[in-house]
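ESCALATION

Customer reports they have been waiting on this structure for their group meeting. Please prioritize. Original submission:
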Amino acid sequence: MTLFFLILFVSIVFLLELYVFRILFSFCFRTEPRLERNITNKIASYFDSGGKITFTIIYWTLIIALPINMFLHFQGIIEPYEFKPWIYVNAFFFIFAITRLSLAFYSGIADIIGWLDNKITKSSDLGDYDPGRKSFIQKMALLVGILPFPTLTYGMIRNPYRYRVRENIIGLKDLDERLEGLRIVQISDIHSGSWVFKSPVETAIKKINELKPDLVFFTGDLVNYKASEMEPFVEFFSQIESTYGVYSVLGNHDYGEYYRWDSKQDQKGNFQEMLNVHKRMGWKLLRNENEIININGAELAVIGVENYSALPQFPNYGDLSLAYEGTKNAEVRILLSHDPTHWDAEVRKYFEDIHITLSGHTHGFQFGFEIPGFVRWSPSSLVYNQWAGLYQSGSQYLYVNRGLGFLGYPGRVGILPEITFIELRDKKEDLV
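Update from on-call: job pushed to the front of the queue and completed.
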């Protein structure tokens, strides 16, 4: 039965690839007598001398190379995050695959419309069927279908390091005047294994320090797989300046559970190295614990939990009850929890006196659009109730950072990398 479904799957994929190949081949090599100077004819004439064979070889070589690349990656023969240029090889295959799927989808719709148009025209008194109409629809489908290629390529070249500082004012009722105007910076999801260049890191640190934060919080996912990915960047993140320090928590990627280790001992060693990285950078890592900070005589509790998720596919090591102990007398309680599903699952239900929760994890899927005050959407919204930005429920707030780095696709479209700035105010009026 398994073999049957495997053969069925491979057959469907092959037919889809054949369909997309036919679309592209037809566009490149078809000539149209009525439009002698159009772009289709120009491409066709350019490829006349042996171009058809070259095109066919290149296309099918790329198709075959994709599963080979996946096999080498999953077998650990090629480590993209150790040989950094390979990140862009994977990105090309990803963009090429998305574009082919898009082409198959829109061209399929165009072919169905053309077929229905032909049938309806022939069975009615609407006159002769116009092949030009079908050709126009097919070309429009081709135009729309290939849009992912330039869009995702632009997002990869232009946006991965275009850090955006998002400023927020959070008003807390009866905020102690000694905490009025407290300046907080949050960063999240660095994913250092994806960073090919060092200079953008320096830019990010400079932007953080220019905000003159009183507190800096990091909400998890320092790496992709292994602690060693941070080695080239420790010196930079050690330069973050903050009046009362930098506090951090672990994310689902920080436990080394997505890497195939030779032994459990190796994984434990990696995790210990991860803890040491936080120490070397001067960050206070909170693992189901809290830190009471005295700010001008007022107490602010920073509560940090290990990864907690309401989704079963992610590790769940968080213990908020343990982390919360001893914070009752604090004027303000801020929770650092990597996964925003924690807010609905536990924080809002059982810890109503936690004023602010800071999370990350979603990256906003690194794709979407946001028009402030009007509309915003990302595929992330299909998975997470709270996927980016500021949310409020009664007197409690959640902020979901869109991530400083990236994972998988080395770029962003519409959802830029983020440095979050939050200023605390006494809520005399609705400030949010």
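Sent to customer with the following note: Residues 33-37 have pLDDT under 50 and may be disordered.
Escalation resolved.
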